């Protein structure tokens, strides 16, 4: 047996495992990319969630409902300058994803806000999240919890 074979075996295992690690989801014409969240301090009432939605179809779709057992409600927030203060607030109308467009929810911009967290989000955990789109329907995804203050999904 060659010295390298355990390594090759490990590589083969990683290749097999990679679709799960990438953790993207497909729902009709929509592709949900890499959902993740930030770990929260013990008493934080809210937590941020992030993902991308790509519309590969020919019609616009809208995100009409979001829920998670980890929070009382989940909203889509936008960041807006008010005077010279950056504030966030809920979108006035459901998030729309136009055909051929990818909408990215990321720190500093559009994001999911889990309001009324039932427990702090801990790094390494997976938070279940249900998304309902007007046309594509309903999908359950999992947010991977990254470090507090993470700028992007470090797993990838
Ligand atoms: Cu927010």
List the helices and strands and how they pair.
Layout: H1 5-22, E1 25-27, E2 30-38, E3 46-55, E4 61-67, E5 71-82, E6 85-90, E7 95-97, E8 102-105, E9 111-117, E10 126-133, E11 137-146
Parallel strand pairs: 2-11
Antiparallel strand pairs: 1-2, 2-3, 3-8, 3-9, 4-7, 4-10, 5-6, 5-9, 10-11
Copper (II) ion binds next to β9.
TL;DR of this structure?
This protein is mostly beta strands.
Description:
This protein is mainly beta and 156 residues long. Helices cover 12% and strands 51% of the residues. It has one helix and eleven strands, in the order αβββββββββββ. Strands 1, 2, 3, 4, 5, 6, 7, 8, 9, 10 and 11 form an eleven-stranded mixed sheet that branches. 24% of the residues are buried. The mean pLDDT is 88. It binds copper (II) ion (CU). The site of copper (II) ion has 4 residues, from β9.
Radius of gyration: 18 Å
List the bound ligands.
Answer: copper (II) ion
> What does the main sheet amount to?
11 strands, mixed
Q: Which regions contain 5 or more consecutive residues with pLDDT less than 50?
A: none
Return the structural class. mainly beta
Order of helices and strands: HEEEEEEEEEEE
The termini sit apart by 33 Å
Averaged pLDDT, please? 88
Compute the number of strand runs: 11
- The oligomeric status of these chains comes to single chain
The tally of helices reads 1
Tell me roughly what share of residues is in helical segments. Answer: 10-25%
Gross morphology is globular
Bin the strand percentage: over 45%
